[in-house]
Amino acid sequence: MTFLLTLLTSLLLVGPALGQDMTYEEVLTQLQGCPSECRCPPNFPNAVYCDNKGLKHIPNIPPHTWYLYLQNNLIDVISKDALRNATQLRWLNLNRNKLTSKGVEEGVLADMPRLMHLFMDDNLLASVPSGLPSNLEQLRLSRNRISKIPTGVFSGMNRLTLLDLQGNKLQDDAVTEVSLKGLSSLVQINLAKNQLNSMPPGLPPSTAQIFLDGNNIEKIPEEYFKGLPKVAFLRLNRNKLGNSGLPKNVFNISSMLDLQLSHNQLTEVPLISSGLEHLHLDHNRIKSVNGSEICPVSAEVLEDYVNDGVPRLRYLRLDGNQIKPPIPRDVITCFRLLQSIVI
């Protein structure tokens, strides 16, 4: 009786805020079905918090759960039985558990048709899970042991905008145009800290952010960005890029805003587009900077101080090279919008 009175009091207090999403009966069912190991706040009944509990198994989840937090446990299996009622899940956090690829039961993820955010960072997965729901928008699988992307695993996933695979064991033969097929709405892909020797092929034209730090990439094909008209952020820090591996105009891309090439083997500043705003070239082998050679616009444009075509570069990092101050005057003349130079 005391429990029911507490529930009714909570419902009366939060009722106006819940009217748009859940009925009182649904809230009551949800709170009564809350697993004893978890916490289900009456003012946020769609959420079930089971994080940091030392759990080895997923408890039975009540039917009106939208947000399920299971991070920082010891879970090694995602079972269909425990999640049989969780068909309304939008958000599932399984970060920092003990999940293996064999521990993800077949079809368990496909039974969550409304799932939009899936977090499985810091587990023991060897492969990208199969049977992903087509409604998924963000998939985070960083710091696992993934070496395989099964063919067709992303088929039909035209709503996925973010794919995070950093810190795995992916090699060139795993990241192919075929393995990435289906990601027609992808905006951000993170393949940093893998074992790639080449730029990933077949990225969809929608891709705007590409993170490839900490690989073994030595060159970029001349036409690589031709099929990526929206790329704006490119991170290639800590690779093995030298000037011989960079075609002359490979970074002269009108959509590019932020280019990071720190900790490589460059001896010269690469040519950039006039629209680039941030350029990171620290910790390379650059000895000098010649403004007349790297300026992306003509002298005539520079003479017109109100011309919209002047270079947009605002941040330039050159420390960790062999350049000695001061910065040459022609560099300042060209990049007159610079707000910060680190040397």
Q: What's the total helix number?
A: 5
Low-pLDDT segments: 1-14, 16-20
Mass-distribution shape:
elongated
The main sheet comes to:
13 strands, parallel
Helix coverage percent of residues?
Answer: 10-25%
Mean pLDDT: 91
Overview of the structural elements:
The structure is a single chain. 12% of the residues lie in helices and 11% in strands. It is low in regular secondary structure and 343 residues long. Residues 1-14 and 16-20 have low confidence and may be disordered.
Please describe the topology of this protein.
Layout (H helix, E strand, L loop, with lengths): L1 H17 L5 H9 L14 E3 L17 E3 L21 E3 L23 E3 L18 E3 L21 E3 L23 E3 L18 E3 L21 E3 L22 E3 L17 E3 L10 H4 L4 H5 L11 E3 L11 H6 L5 E3 L1
Parallel strand pairs: 1-2, 2-3, 3-4, 4-5, 5-6, 6-7, 7-8, 8-9, 9-10, 10-11, 11-12, 12-13
Helix pairs in contact: 1-2
Which properties best describe this structure?
343 residues; 13 strands; 13-stranded parallel sheet
Quick overview of this protein structure:
The chain is low in regular secondary structure and 343 residues long. The protein is 12% helix and 11% strand.
